[in-house]
Amino acid sequence: MRNVYPTHQTLSLAQARRIIDAALAHATAQAMNPITVTVMDISGHPLSCDRADGCAALRLAVAHGKARAALGYGVSSGTIGQRNESRPAFLSAVAAASQGEFIPVAGGVLILDPQERVIGAVGVSGDSSENDEKAAIAGIEAAHLGVGLAPKD
């Protein structure tokens, strides 16, 4: 008999693990530096994360910050950085307001359901930001979920 109500999850642990495994496999296949991958649910809490052998310890915090930035703004972390290149004071203020959990460089990608609603985010850190983003996309696609960089409208 259960004594608490279960929460409604839009992203399962199994899906998170598929995303992580595929992102790590992509990094290996592309001869990328070792990466860290985190998958967060819609509330910005980690469902799962892994750090490849040889990846620096601080990469976990960076991966979290990229995923949190994407969740906080509704576009990829790279899109946030591009849209605000001429506003460094604004980006610094948001980073301070989020207690450092906001990293607006490529590597944080939203996970979308079939109706293009955000159900979570992936953050990757360890290689170039561009390659981090490619690994995140590979992971999401391997889980047969939607990739959220920026709306096309």
Strand and helix layout:
Blueprint: H1 13-29, E1 36-41, E2 46-51, H2 59-73, H3 77-83, H4 88-97, E3 108-112, E4 118-125, H5 129-142, E5 146-148
Antiparallel strand pairs: 1-2, 1-4, 3-4, 3-5
Helix pairs in contact: 1-5
Written description of the protein model:
The chain is of the alpha+beta class and 153 residues long. The chain has five helices and five strands; from the N terminus they run αββαααββαβ. A hairpin with a 5-residue loop joins strand 3 and strand 4 (118-125). Helix 1 crosses helix 5. The longest helix is centred in the N-terminal third of the chain and has 17 residues, at 13-29. The chain starts with 12 loop residues before the first helix and ends in a 5-residue tail after the last strand. The mean pLDDT is 95.
Strand content: 15-25%
Structural class designation: alpha+beta
Number of strands: 5
Overall average residue pLDDT: 95
H/I helix tally: 5
- Can you give the helix content as a percent range? 40-55%
The rounded Rg comes to 15 Å
Order of helices and strands: HEEHHHEEHE
* End-to-end Cα distance: 48 Å
Give the uncertain stretches in residue-range form. Answer: none
Largest sheet: 5 strands, antiparallel
Characteristic terms for this protein:
5 strands
